[in-house]
Target: Flavin reductase family protein
Amino acid sequence: MVFYEPAARDRDLLPHDPFKAIVAPRPIGWISTRTADGTTNLAPYSFFNAVGDRPPMVMFSSVGMKDTASLALESGEFCWNLVSRDLAELMNATSRSLPRGDDEAAATGLELEPGRVTGAPRVVASHASLECVVVHSTQLRDRHGAETDHWLVVGEVVGVHLDEALLTPDGRFDTLAAQPVMRAGYADEYLVADTMLRMTRPA
Model:
């Protein structure tokens, strides 16, 4: 068993930090936002997940105060869009760094439409989208209390968009059929969900 403290990793044994490979797979936070003048922004985030269900809440964490995080905080809204296998390459294209105000969706040929409850747009081609209102945000601190360059944004889900083709006859969203793409360990690694494991919770 290999053991190391993060700040003292053996760079010969582990030249690439395995942290993201250990905490994997992770849903992709494909977040769309809108500026005050109506310009849209779309970017994928590696650190994203659900954090509660009553009410439903999701979070994403931005390394650096990037456009998506700052626009979510300025507008108080954002939308999460599911990345399925058919959208993987387009999602990856939206990860390019563009000047603030440039539209990543337009640059990649993706169509956005206005939200139903919020002003944040959604990716039309996405099989599921969650409109969110920001309810909490913070700059993360390390164990010594020092501020880091990580910004956590939590949103309450106030609107849900689902592709009817992915609803089963008994009313479930078919996650496996959606083929969600997830972040794996390193910069160029992704996983696609292709196996369902069912286990009944013990009484």
